[in-house]
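Q: How do we represent a protein-ligand complex in a form that can be generated token by token?
A: Start from the inputs.
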Amino acid sequence: MAAQTASAASTGGGVGVGVGVGVGVGVGVGEVAGGALEMRAAVLREPGRPVAVETVTLAAPRRDEVLVRVAAAGVCHSDVHLADGLLGAGRAPMVLGHEGAGVVEAVGDGVDGLSVGDHVAFCFVPSCGACGACRAGRRTLCETAGRFGVAGMLMDGTSRLRAADGAVLQHGLMVACFAEYAVVPAGGAVPLPASIPLWQAALLGCGVVTGVGAVNRAGLRVGATVCVIGCGGVGLQVIAGARLAGAGTIVAVDVDPGKLELALRRGATHAVLGRGGSPVVEEVLALSGGGVEHAFEVVGRPDTIRQAWDVLRPGGTATVVGVAPVGVEVSLPAIEFLSEKTITGSYYGSSDVHAALDRLVQLVVDGRLDLGDVVSDLIELDGVEGALDRLRRGEGARSVIVIDEALAGVSV
Ligand code: PAD
Ligand code: ZN
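Then emit the structure tokens for the protein with zinc ion bound:
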């Protein structure tokens, strides 16, 4: 039902944008001392405990930071990993949410290229440009962003978020957009054309740039044979990327028939249901004439990572996008390195996120990359724990939290 609402809105055009609205204006949002504001946000108190909405305080943006009024936010499986404590200790209390879009409400000193009223997508690796990884051109591996991102802090190592009792809250992956507002480093906000409805643009900053970027990292060539294991919110973007890159055979694998249907609509040429003891590897080998050149694992489990290896033909490359819990190991038959197979990872699209998003946005504007079709549920902020649960159960492709209906361009 929500998806119907979503597609109806996608053809409806105009998004009402409150350009230049002052900080602190808006339902449920109040100004407090020092330019800080009070707002509603979804807080992970401790792993395993349901995420709940609280009233928290957000301080004004400092130098090189911006305040964004959040329109909509996508719920990604990485949020589940954080909520379930699978990405390491010390990652709470935290305001969750790293995939979203909104409108710039205020800019701190020193910010170039962003103005009040700009539509933006969040980027959770605002690379510093100065560390070894950035200087080597590996901006998504930025060491500064990595260190502070894991700590739940912004690029200066501090947090703008406080709970009602004054306790410091972490910024989820340096974004924290399951909230009415977010303060992010200027590099964490990528300008967008206002023509893209923000409930759809919300998906750009994680699922889309990660999925399509993994295809670029793999260096797909026209006619390539591909297998995508895991066709949820991110895997469906890998399929879209493979189709855009001119792949020939694209075999989609998932345990959920609904995801396979979506995968076929997005350009997969074959679908394999990985449930009920079905021999996934044999089926993919048969469909691809002896193995694929590129396999993408987009689940985050050792058995599916092994499948991505096993479906390769000699010389093929497996790209692991899925995030496995800390401590999980994978074993591979070492003799097969003789067949020159490669296995690698891809983090956040493995490129310059700003440049990648500029290109992806153009594809969206040109009608060559659909965003809204993967949205299975449009929900309110209070529905976040339900959305995490749906991901745990493997139901639905992407839930989008609509935080501000007028800005998002859709109603829940
Ligand atoms: P999702 O839950 O929407 O999709 C996962 C899909 O895998 C679902 O469709 C499941 O039905 C399917 N699945 C589950 N078990 C199996 C199995 N045994 N065989 C085949 N399919 C299966 O999650 P998502 O798309 O939001 O995220 C997928 C992974 O990617 C997850 O681990 C997330 O943390 C990771 C991710 N990585 C990056 C990155 O930068 N590498 C970025 C964002 C998300
Ligand atoms: Zn994500």
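Residues 1-28 have pLDDT under 50 and may be disordered. The radius of gyration is 21 Å.
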